Amino acid sequence: MERMAKDKVEETGELEWALLPRGEISQVEGIFLEKNTCNIWDKIWNFQAKPDDLVIASYPKAGTTWTQEIVDLIQNNGDIEKSRQAPIPLRQPFLELVITTYSGINQANAMPSPRTLKTHLPVQLLPPSFWEKNCKIIYVARNAKDTMVSYYHFQRMNKTLPDPGSWDEYFETFLAGKVAWGSWYDHVKGWWRKKDSHPILYLFYEEMITDPKREIRKVMEFLGKDLTEEVLDKIVYNTSFDVMKNNPMTNYTNVRMNHNISPFMRKGVIGDWKNQFSETQNKQFNEDYEKNMADTSLLFRMEL
Ligand code: A3P
């Protein structure tokens, strides 16, 4: 009986998802963004930051949610119950996101300080008020190959973004920067340059995988907190892939995402691109990468 009820719910969810229209993308200053975001761009650009706002910025699929949960738990001194009171976009508004009744801007404006805000905006599109108020920013970056694969599967399951088409098609679209939030190259390089003139903690997904406690400690110090080893260990455990995958407050179980196509918490590893890239694509990618990364000191690990 229970099983039948569960099947029914799943079927209804599938149907609801199938009927939802796909979100579209448009442009702001040459950068592709979700159309809903473009439609209220003036409101976003004029957003008023406060000096104690913290921004978590990233290119999509870099490990944003992971970083958000780490930050939230640090701010809550490791209090798991407190961090589990609401889904992550309600605890930390997603600045430029607008879907149905959710608006990151409205969410942020209604929230008491100190606020933590998420954004995927490239550095030149961050509302100027954040620079004027000298807000602290944490940026997380992930190697382009794994990001591309993760983004492809994300677009398959997430109806707020356009259909990615086939993997081969998506490979070209991504390399051309014709995806929401623009070119990966420009994003990671732009934020990397900015950290020379602004308080930005630049994290790497690959380092977080290799030594989560070390990276969590970095975040803690950046936030000016001092937590015991015991609390740090608790945060490492509660932000591990398996725990976050089973946590409804971090795993994005909602109607717009069809986790049967691909779960939001998909694999969480370094080097999954090897299962997706053809040899020819890898060669083409490497040539493109070399050209585009020639003018930066940024280095990424693409495998363990
Ligand atoms: P995969 O699709 O490669 O599995 P974002 O939050 O920026 O959208 O990033 C999502 C990616 O980060 C997904 O990558 C997801 O599995 C991974 N991720 C989320 N939480 C993680 C964690 N605790 N440990 C490792 N990877 C995590």
UniProtKB/TrEMBL annotation:
InterPro entries per the UniProt record, alphabetical: P-loop_NTPase, Sulfotransferase_dom
Superkingdom of the organism of origin: Eukaryota
Domain (Sulfotransferase): residue spans on this chain: 51-296
Catalytic activity entry: 4-ethylphenol + 3'-phosphoadenylyl sulfate = 4-ethylphenyl sulfate + adenosine 3',5'-bisphosphate + H(+)
EC number in record: 2.8.2.-
UniProt keyword terms in alphabetical order: Transferase
Coiled-coil zones: none
Family statement drawn from the similarity comment of this UniProt entry: Belongs to the sulfotransferase 1 family.
Name of the molecule in the record: Sulfotransferase
Source species of the chain: Ceratotherium simum simum
Upper classification of the organism: Eukaryota, Metazoa, Chordata, Craniata, Vertebrata
Gene name tied to this protein: LOC101393475
